Every structure is written in structure tokens, then in C-alpha cells.
What we know:
Butyryl-CoA Dehydrogenase, subunit A, domain 2, 3 domains, four-stranded mixed β-sheet, oxidoreductase activity, acting on the CH-CH group of donors, flavin adenine dinucleotide binding, Acyl-CoA_Oxase/DH_mid-dom
Amino acid sequence: MDLTDSAEEAAFRREVRQWLTEHLTGEFAEARGLGGPGREHEGFDVRLAWDRLLAEHGWTCLGWPREFGGREASVGQQIIFHEEYARSEAPVRVGHIGEELLGPTLMAFGSPEQQKRFLPEIVGARELWCQGYSEPGAGSDLANVATTARLEGDEWVLNGQKVWTSMAHVADWCFVLARTDPAQSRHQGLSYFLVPMDQPGIRVRPIMQLTGTSEFNEVFFDDARTAAGNVVGEVGQGWKVAMGTLGFERGIGTVDQQVVFRRELAEITERARAGGALDDPLLRDRITRAWTDLEALRCTVFRLLGGDGPPGPESSVVKLLWSTLHRELGELAMAVSGPDGLVAQGPPYDLDGGQRLFLFTRADTIYGGSNEIQRNIIAERVLGLPREPRPQEVTR
């Protein structure tokens, strides 16, 4: 695999670099480095304004087809954009859930009416999205979803609870997996809905995290409503659509994640150099391995995105790689800090970047499908190994 820039890619890199240099000025220059895991509360308004500036100049939804408002950028160009974005320390984007998860899902499974209604708003960063998958009794076991939806006239009525819903407190819409056929179980009888968040039937309750922030939320649906036409795909066939979304999340979505990971590794390395920890050969080795792991992740994403259609079960490899890598970055940050990393920087609970990274990444190997589940998927659906016995199948 040749990862060097072609002449066309080199020209594209110069274009991206020049635009970022010219526009990261004033309030946007002051917003450099804001946002990211455990820090989504930072400068939200200015980051939203930045997203909309990107949209005005055609820098959102780069890989989307032109007919849907994108630039049809190649995978290589998309990665170049994110690499230059990281180099510039531009603020972390706020519209990534719509751009990287829902948008590709609607292009693959949505109706022309849904595409016309929702895709332009995502391209323009005018509507933000959140993901209504996990529930108190259905986390990695997503097929155990209990939230229900019933059709009343020309509307669907939803009841239930979702949990760990990132950015629900600022989202305009939520894509929700709910059970429409109570006679079915597991993967059958589920449907994929687009639900407006600003309505009396929806209540959002923030979840306080170890970091002291609360970008995760509980979302309660109490006779919440959405139009009959806001089902993506066929009624009762939502599992296929939901798996498609997860495939997109573990594909091009990880390119955006790598922007944050590279920035975090650079900060860890600089802290190690400034504090003398870089003199420790064991820590130097861990930093080198972290850099190598990031390069391996980049190559793996290249390969995954080189296929046709939505990524399949092999996308679980990427989820397993990035979540483990990010957790190890948090542990590396604490190792570089040494004993000082065990003490808050000030009252009441003021954390530095390394401490926040360590605490937040405890969740990475769980949300979006735990590492244990990803290993099972890889074993059974990619490698063709025998299926792991389910609890009810184990005889005593």
C-alpha cells in the first residue's frame, strides 16, 4: 500500500493547508484545540459557527457524492483533510454524527424524500444529530432493544429509554432503533426512526462522567412522535439499517477520530519531553508503539474504505483497534505524569488533559459495542469460527 501523496493529492493538501491558515483567525484561532472526548462542552457555540463556515466553503461531507452536496473526495483526500485539520489544531467538529453516521446511512437505505429533506441540513451544519441505540438492558446486546413504536394515524408514537446518547442535549434529531412488532424478538421486528428532539414527549437527562463532564445522556421517550414517513428502510427491517450505520461509524468515522488521537499523542510526547519522562527508555518505547499503532490504524481504515458498499462485519476490527489504542493513550498519559497524575489540578475537580483522557477512555472499549462483542463478531462472521454458546444453551 503506497501512502505517499500523488501529485493530485499533494495539490489538495496544499489547498487544505492554505484554507485553514487563512480562516483560523480571530475567534476561530482562539478556539484551536477545543473539544474532543470528555471536552465536548468546550466552546460549543464557536465550534458550531466553525462547522458552518466549513460548510459555506465546501469542507463538510467531503466524501459524499456531489448529488448530495459533497465533493466526492477520494479516501486519500479525506484522510489528507483530516491530517491537515489535526496539524492546524482546528476545533473538534460538532456535526460528525450526522455527517459520518446518519448521512451515509440515508444515502444507502433512505428514500429520495428523506435524502432531500435531511442531507442538505447535515451538509450545511444546520441540524445536529444523536444516536438512540443503547438502552439500560441493551448495550452491546443491541438486539435486546425494548423501546417501542406504534403507528397511530400518520405518526409513530415511541415509548422507552435510551442511554449513553452522546450530545443528545444539543441535538435537533435522533435516529432511534425501536421495536415495532412486539410478537418478534431479537433482530426481528425492529425499525429505524428519525425523531425530532424538540417535543414534549422527549426528556434528556445528562449523565455525569468520571471526567466531571456530561456529554453522554439518558433520553426518555414518553409518547414521543415522529411522522409516518420517518422510517428508514422497511418497517421491521431496522436491524439491517442499524448495522449499516455501525459499519459507517467504524469506517470513515474513524478518520475523524484519528485527528483527535494524533493531537493527544503529540501532547503526551511534548509533556514527556518537557518533564524529562522521555529519558526513560520504557516510556520512549511506549510512545513509539503508540505512534506505530496509529499508523497501523490508518492503513487498516484505508483497506476497509477501499471496498464497495457499506463496511461489513470486518469493520469490527477497526472498532477493536481504535478503542484499545485510545485506552492505552490514556494510560500512557498517566505514566508520563507520574505520581502528579493522581492529584487533581485544583478544586473542586480540575483535571488536566492527561487525566481527562485516562478517565474518559475507560468507556471506549465498551460503547459502540464492547471489545468482547467485537472479538465474537470477528471470530464468527469474519473468520468463520464456531459460534460462542449463548447462556441459555449452556447445560449445567
